[in-house]
Amino acid sequence: MSQSFFRFKQFTIHQDACAMKVGTDGVLLGVLSDVASANNLLDIGTGTGLVSLMLAQRKPSLQIDAIEIDADAAQQAQDNIAKSPWPHIQVHCTPLQTYQPTTRYQLIVSNPPYFVNSLKNPNAERAIARHTDSLSFQELLEGVDRLLQPTGQFWVILPHNEQKNFCQLAQEKGLFVQQLIHIHSRASKPPKRIVMAFARTQTTAQEEHLIIEEEQRHHYSAAFAQLTAPFYLDRD
């Protein structure tokens, strides 16, 4: 997915100015986050604007704010949004740590930086997008705690091996896991990603597994194909 643009059924993502391109992580967050009871939304680290646009397509009435620390990416997200059916999405070029909106949100989503101790990419913008130096898990959760309404939900996608650490940090902020979706590239492989939903209510988390591809590469599973059918051009 390294081309300069990526076309979906109802919008196009231009990505030549963004360090992080359209990828499966963002698509998963866009199709799995629960928008049913939300009227407003904050997308933390919007990048190309992909997740905001997917959620706007799923629920056009959503009032959406999207924040992005990188100026070039923020501008490209704004351009992508302006050319979409949902130009009301507001992009703010600001760090989460200093973002001061006039409202709190019923839904917050994030596909955050997650490489904690790995080798840095020599491209500075890509390093910011991929590593936690600019937004640690602690800072992300502090921002969510500050900006989430009492009855709101927070959805996030992370490497599967970060689940325990992230859930522990979230619980320290009074955010409790409600749902765990284990993401497998194939049925025969262990999960590599996890999509998690958090809220301020303690409960027994619901767990499920989602397989992306059949054993034959580039053949999507029926479940993933159904989820992405409203978005991917090659899916009916």
Please render the helix and strand layout as text.
Layout: E1 5-7, E2 12-14, H1 24-32, E3 40-44, H2 50-58, E4 63-68, H3 71-82, E5 90-93, E6 105-110, H4 124-130, H5 137-147, E7 148-159, H6 163-172, E8 176-186, E9 193-199, E10 206-213, H7 222-228
Parallel strand pairs: 3-4, 3-6, 4-5, 6-7, 8-10
Antiparallel strand pairs: 1-2, 7-9, 8-9
Helix pairs in contact: 1-2
Question: Could you please describe the fold and organization of this structure?
Answer:
With 236 residues, the chain is of the alpha/beta class. It contains seven helices and ten strands. α3 links the parallel β4 (63-68) and β5 (90-93). The longest helix is centred in the N-terminal third of the chain and has 12 residues, at 71-82.
